């Protein structure tokens, strides 16, 4: 994690915002359970979500650049593999969920894959939904709301 102070970059909009930069790689979600007490204190609802869903899998890459005075311009890159979680409220459970997220809040793309997976969704389906294989691509942004499946 790094904080980059505001910078004069020239041009019409000369000042670039302070930025918070977060980088991580090869994170096993099951290994983050030791951070649970911090999550409980900082954001109790996040702690509850983590305990209920019991997420697993691996974050292969995470990069966030967050301009602190213009968070709507946040840039991101992420890749994950074999994520799994238990159902929470209206979020169905899932397994074998892999994919990537690239771009920015203004213009981004999410690619997701599932194979040989079960999605339990009590209250909606009597039995878990069985997924042999599935892929989806979502274009993110103000005017870009397309879904490809």
From TrEMBL:
Q: Which Pfam families match?
A: YhdP
Annotated YhdP central domain residues:
14-145
Q: Which InterPro entries match?
A: YhdP, YhdP_central
What superkingdom does the record give? Bacteria
- Name of the protein described by the UniProt record: Membrane protein
Its ancestry begins with: Bacteria, Pseudomonadati, Pseudomonadota, Gammaproteobacteria, Enterobacterales
């Amino acid at each position: 994690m790094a904080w980059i102070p505001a910078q004069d970059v020239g041009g019409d909009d000369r000042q670039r915002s302070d930025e918070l930069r977060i980088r991580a790689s090869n994170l096993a979600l099951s290994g983050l359970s030791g951070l649970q007490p911090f999550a409980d204190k900082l954001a109790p609802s996040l702690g509850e979500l983590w305990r209920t869903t019991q997420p697993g899998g691996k974050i292969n890459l995470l990069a966030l650049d967050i301009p602190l005075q213009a968070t709507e311009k946040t840039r991101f890159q992420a890749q994950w593999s074999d994520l799994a979680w238990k159902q929470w409220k209206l979020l169905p459970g899932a397994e074998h969920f892999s994919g990537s997220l690239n771009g920015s809040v203004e213009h981004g793309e999410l690619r997701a894959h599932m194979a040989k997976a079960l999605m339990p969704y009590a209250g909606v389906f009597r039995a878990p939904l069985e997924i042999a294989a599935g892929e989806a691509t979502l274009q993110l942004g103000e005017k870009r709301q397309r879904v490809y499946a």
